[in-house]
Amino acid sequence: MQSGPCRAQAGSLAASRPLVLAIAVLGAAASGCAPLYHDDDFVRPRTRSASRVPLPKAALLTPQAPPDCGEAKTADARPAAGDSKRMASAVVREPASAAPVPPSPDAERNAELALRIKLEYERECYRQAEMRVRERLHQLQSSVGETVKSVNRTEQPTR
Fold first, then answer.
1. Residues 120-152 pLDDT 10s
2. Ramachandran assignment for 70, one of left (phi > 0), alpha (psi -120 to 50 degrees), beta (any other)
3. Which of 18, 52, 64, 79 is deepest in the core (most CB within 10 A)?
4. pLDDT, tens digit, 9 for 90 and up, residues 7-65
5. Beta strands in the chain (DSSP E)
6. Closest C-alpha to 159, from 49, 40, 45, 41
7. How confident is the model at residue 113 (pLDDT cuts 50, 70, 90)?
8. What are phi and psi of 18, to 5 degrees?
C-alpha cells in the first residue's frame, strides 16, 4: 500500500470524475438546444479587391473655368448709360475751333471689318469651349457610370 502524496492524488482524481462527467453532460445538453443553421445564413466576408469602387478623377470633379474668349481684352470701353461719374470723365471736350471731321469711308469699312472679325473669333472660341465642356461632361458621365456599376456589383448577394 502506498501512503503519502501519491495516495492523496489518487483520491482527488476519484472525486473529480463525477464533476467532469457532470460538465460533459451539461455541455451535450446545451449543444442540443442550438438552432439549426445553413451555410447561407452566414455572410461571407468580402475580399478587399471586390469592395474597391472606382471613383471619378478629381480633375473631372473640379469646376471648369469660363472660356477666355477675349471679353476682357476687347470689352466696350464706353461707360454704361447710368454711370454718370464714368460718363463725365469719358467726355472729352474739344476746342471750339476744331470742326468735326467725318470719318472716311475706308475707316468705316475697316471698323466694320474689325468688328466682324472680332465677333467671328468669339463665336469660334465659344464653339470650341462648348466642345471641350461636352467632352469633359461625357468623361464624367462614363466615370460615374462605372462607379454605379461597381457599387451595384458589390451590393448583389454572392452565392
1. 999 999 999 999 999 999 999 999 999 999 898
2. left
3. 79
4. 555 556 667 788 887 787 777 766 666 566 655 556 655 555 556 888 888 888 899 89
5. none
6. 40
7. very high
8. -65, -35
Which grid coordinates belong to 90? 469719358
At which residue does the C-alpha cell 471731321 appear?
Answer: 101
Domain spans, the chain: 5-36, 53-76+105-159
102 CB-contact burial (10 Å; exposed 0-12 / middle 13-18 / buried 19+)? exposed
Q: Which of 25, 2, 121 is nearest to 71 (CA)?
A: 121
Q: Which residue has the cell 445564413?
A: 41
